[in-house]
Hints:
By secondary structure, this protein is mainly α. 73% of the residues lie in helices and 0% in strands. The longest helix is centred in the middle third of the chain and has 22 residues.
Amino acid sequence: MDRETLSMRRRPGNGRWTLSALAAVTAAIALISPQAKAMAGWLGLHPHPPRLDLILAAAPVIQIHIAGAVVALVIGIVLMIGVKGTGLHKTLGWGWVAAMALTAVSSLFIRQINHGAFSFIHLLSGWTIIALPMAIYAIKRGKVAAHRRTMTGLFVGGLVIAGLLTFLPGRLMWTVFLG
Length: 179
């Protein structure tokens, strides 16, 4: 086994995940405080229990898209935290690829926000459809670093950043959670 492969098999309990967990807990405590609720009202935000009925009332393609994104996010977090190169990593990785592909392809049929035309976010969907096979090809050829860069980029750009953009005012997730 080469050094690059060995470096991928890191222990999950390193400091960066501890710091991330601490930040998440701190943010959660801050968000449920009365001061945070007052500040949210002042900013025009109206947090409330999620209105999941809005998701159930959405078009089937939107429901499929949300389901794929949530599955990809959960699996992706497990993959990012876990030890790389194991059988579990490979099995979950194929599930993640399927969920990402479902999310990217389904997004091509969601065009309500731009009056039936493609929008900027569809470029990301196209890139995901191209980059997923590239990452698989890289790992099959033993190019661990290329695989890691591509998959991490898809996770951060295709799930985290794109997911945050769904919480902009006027979007469905904004209405479900904040509107």
